[in-house]
Amino acid sequence: MLGKKMVTAQKRGETRALCLGLGMVACSMMMYFFIGITIVPFYTKSVWTTETVCKVLKANIKDKVFCPDSKGSEDEEIFPYPCLQVWVNLTASGQEVMLYQSEDTLERNPKCSYVPNKLENSKEVKAQIETIASNFKKYQTFPCYYDPGGTQTNVLLSRLYPAKGLLFAFLWPTLMFTGGCLIIVLVKISQYVSVLSAWQ
């Protein structure tokens, strides 16, 4: 009687472990799919792939511009901000080009090097942009990214999805997939050993 209970408990444990392993594999596949349709296209479309050194030539704050909004809402009229323009000397080619914070900045407003997050206090926005401008003037040389193909004549301070970020995004689903497969293999080995022991 006790032996039957132990066998039943073992089968239940194996079933739960097998379900856990299959669930981990399924979740990892969903994460792979999600990363593949969200992050990977942005990474492959970005042409700013080569890192070089940029030297600041000038960092000026122009008149206020309106916050761009692709949806065309009325936020454009209530969120003006100072337009920071940073021009750098590209070491790789010696050209004078405009610097943008990331691909998103260029898409939102190609006139400005930096687009602040929406803040209700305009003084905070102005102080933030002035601080960024002073930092550029203070630290004249820094790494940046440019387009080696020449289709884009501007440079980026940082990429939204660099190669390291993409690898890190794939790290967790890979670990989950490996763990799920390992659990399934261990359960199958346990079942095989149990059947072999019972047969002997």
From TrEMBL:
Keywords associated with the record: Glycoprotein, Ion channel, Ion transport, Membrane, Transmembrane, Transmembrane helix, Transport
Record-linked PANTHER family: CALCIUM-ACTIVATED POTASSIUM CHANNEL SUBUNIT BETA, CALCIUM-ACTIVATED POTASSIUM CHANNEL SUBUNIT BETA-1
This protein's encoding gene: Kcnmb1
Family: Belongs to the KCNMB (TC 8.A.14.1) family. KCNMB1 subfamily.
GO BP term, pick one: detection of calcium ion
Pfam families named among the record's database cross-references: CaKB
One Gene Ontology cellular component: voltage-gated potassium channel complex
Name of the protein in its database record: KCMB1 protein
Entry GO MF terms: calcium-activated potassium channel activity; potassium channel regulator activity
Transmembrane segments: 20-43, 166-187
Signal peptide: none
Topology term for the membrane: Multi-pass membrane protein
Main location: membrane
Protein's cellular compartments: Membrane
